[in-house]
C-alpha cells in the first residue's frame, strides 16, 4: 500500500486488473467518454483548420490530434475517426465533451453530441484477438489506428484498433440498446481466457507507463504540443489554427541560441518527433518522466519538484505503474534536463529523490500495440 494520501484511495484490485490486461485481457467500460460527430460536404475542410493533425485520410482511418488555440496551446486532445468521406467522429474525455463541442462550434463547425447513442467497451490485452475471434467471423487483423464495422455475436459494432493502456486491442462501439448484450457476450467469451473487467484507476496506471497525456493535467491551453512531447501529432503539410505560433516560437528559440540563425520558415520543427527536437529547435521546457526512488511514495499531481535544490516545477500527474513496478510522475522541466539527471519531489511532507528517465517505461518500441499477438 502506498504511503500517505495515495494509500487512502488504493485497492489491490487495481494491480490485478493491470496484470490481467498485460497477461491476458481486460475489459473496460468507456461508454462515458464523449463522442461528437461532424458531417457534411465541408466537414473535412473545417476540421482540417482546427485540428493540428492531418485528417485527409481514407475512411476507416483514426487520427490522434490536438485542437490548438492561436498561441499554440492545447485546447483539446482527442481522436478523430473518418467514418465516411463526409462524416467524422471525435472521441474525447468524459468531462471534456461540453468544452470541446463549444470550442468547435465557436470555430464554425456543426457538432452533434452522440455520447448517449453509443456504448463503448475496450478489449485490450494479448488474448483479445482470441477472445473476439470466438465471437466474430469478420477479419480482425486490420491495422493499428484503423476502424472497421464488424459483428460481435448478434451485435453490430464499430471496432477501432486504438489503445490507452499500451496493449493490443480495440474500442468496441455499439448502439446503446445493445450495450448490456455486448458486455455480457464479451464477459462470457473472455473469462475462460483469464480476462477481467477493469476500471479507470487501472487505465490511469497503465497510461502513465506508456506516457499517454491527459488534458487538463499534463497538457493544457498553456502548453504546446512540442513542449508536451506531442510534436509527432502535428502535421507538416497543411495550415491549422496555432501553426503560426508554433513556428514563431521555434524561430525565437533558434535566434536566441548562441550561433542560432533566423530567417528559416520553421515549418518542420514543430512536427518532428520529440526525440528529434533538440538544441536550438526545442522549447525552453519539456514534459519529462520521473521515477521516484521510494516506490511507496506515490504522487497524485501538484507536488513540487526541485532540481539542484531549487524549485523547478510541479507534478502534472503521477501514480504507480504495476507492470513496471515503479512510482511514476510527470513534470515540465528545463529542456536541457536529460535521462539520468536527478530531481526531488515533495511527497507526504518529505523530499523524495527521483531520476529523469526516457519514456515510455513500458514497451518503448510499442510492439505490443502495433503487431498482432503471437
UniProtKB/TrEMBL annotation:
Where is each GCVT N-terminal domain found? 8-238
| PANTHER family referenced in this protein's UniProt entry, alphabetically | AMINOMETHYLTRANSFERASE, AMINOMETHYLTRANSFERASE, MITOCHONDRIAL
Question: Which InterPro entries does its entry note?
Answer: GcvT/YgfZ/DmdA, GcvT/YgfZ_C, GcvT_C, GCVT_N, TrmE/GcvT-like
Check the record and name the Pfam families matching this protein: GCV_T, GCV_T_C
Which species is listed as the source?
Answer: Streptosporangium minutum
**Gene3D superfamilies hit by this protein:** Aminomethyltransferase beta-barrel domains, Probable tRNA modification gtpase trme, domain 1
User: Top-down, what is the taxonomic lineage of the species of origin?
Assistant: Bacteria, Bacillati, Actinomycetota, Actinomycetes, Streptosporangiales
Q: Where, by residue number, does substrate bind?
A: 171
Region listing for Disordered, in residue ranges: 249-282
Q: What is this protein called?
A: Aminomethyltransferase
Q: Which residues does the UniProt record annotate as the domain Aminomethyltransferase C-terminal?
A: 285-363
Amino acid at each position: 500500500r502506498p504511503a500517505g494520501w495515495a494509500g487512502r484511495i488504493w485497492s489491490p484490485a487495481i494491480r490485478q486488473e493491470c496484470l490481467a490486461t498485460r497477461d491476458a485481457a481486460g475489459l473496460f467500460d468507456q461508454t462515458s467518454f464523449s463522442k461528437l460527430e461532424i458531417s457534411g460536404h465541408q466537414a473535412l475542410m473545417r476540421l482540417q483548420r482546427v485540428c493540428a493533425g492531418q485528417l485527409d485520410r481514407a475512411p476507416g482511418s483514426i487520427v490522434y490530434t490536438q485542437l490548438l488555440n492561436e498561441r499554440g496551446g492545447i485546447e483539446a486532445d482527442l481522436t478523430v475517426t473518418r467514418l465516411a468521406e463526409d462524416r467524422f467522429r471525435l472521441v474525447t474525455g468524459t468531462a471534456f465533451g461540453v468544452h470541446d463541442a463549444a470550442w468547435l462550434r465557436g470555430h464554425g463547425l456543426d457538432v452533434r453530441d452522440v455520447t448517449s447513442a453509443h456504448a463503448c467497451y475496450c478489449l485490450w490485452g494479448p488474448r483479445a484477438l482470441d477472445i473476439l475471434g470466438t465471437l466474430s467471423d469478420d477479419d480482425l487483423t486490420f491495422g493499428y489506428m484503423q476502424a472497421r464495422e464488424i459483428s460481435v455475436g448478434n451485435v453490430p459494432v464499430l471496432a477501432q484498433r486504438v489503445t490507452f493502456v499500451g496493449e493490443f486491442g480495440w474500442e468496441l462501439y455499439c448502439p446503446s440498446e445493445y450495450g448490456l448484450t455486448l458486455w455480457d457476450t464479451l464477459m462470457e467469451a473472455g473469462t475462460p481466457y483469464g480476462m477481467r473487467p477493469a476500471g479507470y484507476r487501472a487505465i490511469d496506471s497503465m497510461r502513465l507507463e506508456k506516457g499517454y497525456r491527459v488534458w487538463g493535467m499534463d497538457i493544457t491551453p498553456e502548453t504546446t504540443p512540442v513542449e508536451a512531447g506531442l510534436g509527432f501529432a502535428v502535421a507538416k503539410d497543411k495550415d491549422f489554427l496555432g501553426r503560426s505560433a508554433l513556428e514563431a516560437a521555434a524561430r525565437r528559440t533558434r535566434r536566441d541560441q548562441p550561433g542560432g540563425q533566423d530567417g528559416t520558415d520553421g515549418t518542420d520543427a514543430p512536427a518532428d518527433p520529440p526525440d528529434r527536437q533538440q538544441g536550438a529547435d526545442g522549447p525552453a521546457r519539456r514534459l519529462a518522466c520521473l521515477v521516484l526512488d521510494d516506490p511507496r511514495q506515490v504522487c497524485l499531481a501538484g507536488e513540487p519538484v526541485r532540481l539542484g535544490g531549487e524549485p523547478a516545477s510541479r507534478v502534472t500527474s503521477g501514480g504507480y505503474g504495476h507492470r513496471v513496478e515503479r512510482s511514476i510522475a510527470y513534470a515540465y522541466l528545463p529542456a536541457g534536463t536529460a535521462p539520468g539527471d536527478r530531481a526531488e519531489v515533495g511527497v507526504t511532507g518529505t523530499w523524495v529523490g527521483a531520476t529523469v528517465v526516457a519514456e515510455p517505461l513500458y514497451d518503448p518500441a510499442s510492439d505490443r500495440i502495433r503487431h498482432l499477438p503471437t
